[in-house]
Amino acid sequence: MSDHQRTYHCRISVSDEEGALLSGYAAIYGKAERSLFAHLRTGGKLTDLKREFLRGFGITARQFNSISMTLNGARSIRSGSGARD
Prior knowledge:
By secondary structure, the chain is mostly helical.
């Protein structure tokens, strides 16, 4: 395998209305992610926080789990336990 790293991105064309909708979703998701990070850093239990976050941010359980997994992955990479190919 090559030692070169590649990054890909794509741009999508959206209407102003769709752009506003996506921006609103990103704002809620980002705020929920930062808030969960802060709660976990102060000793909060994931299972106890889930119901509060679902109601408080209006997100689904699947979205909460995604945020949790993102934070878990970032934490494991920072601590050196993340596997890299």
